[in-house]
Specification:
Length: about 120
């Protein structure tokens, strides 16, 4: 069983940056970020596999960057040019093989970290 712990959320103004971190208690193949705004479904944001394959949601391409420190079992999400519509609870997720874009594709989840963007 892998445990995930996110950190780095907060309240920022539109246009600002934040970096989220997610530390895993063990090695995983794919680590990803999802987000969920009030009243909306949880949606895919970005993923990064052990083999360095990367994917982003269209809504964050060019603004968000996912990276990973395999030695530390930690994944990061650098979020630049934040918009009010980026506000959500951000969740780290992981799986031991393959990858996916749906919440159901992932076996392990963090508790979430709140990102609030004021206009």
């Amino acid at each position: 069983q892998v445990q995930l712990e996110e950190s780095g959320g907060g309240l920022v103004q539109a246009g600002a940056s934040l970096r989220l971190s997610c530390a895993a208690s063990g090695r995983t193949f794919t680590m990803a970020w999802f987000r969920q705004a009030p009243g909306k479904e949880r949606e895919f944001v970005a993923l990064l596999t052990w083999l360095s394959s990367i994917a982003y949601a269209d809504s964050v391409k060019g603004r968000f960057t996912i990276s990973r420190d395999n030695a530390k079992n930690t994944v990061y999400l650098q979020m630049n040019s934040l918009k009010p519509e980026d506000a959500a609870v951000y969740y780290c997720a992981a799986r031991n093989s393959g990858s996916g874009y749906k919440p159901g594709d992932y076996d392990y989840w963090g508790q979430g970290t709140q990102v609030t963007v004021s206009s």
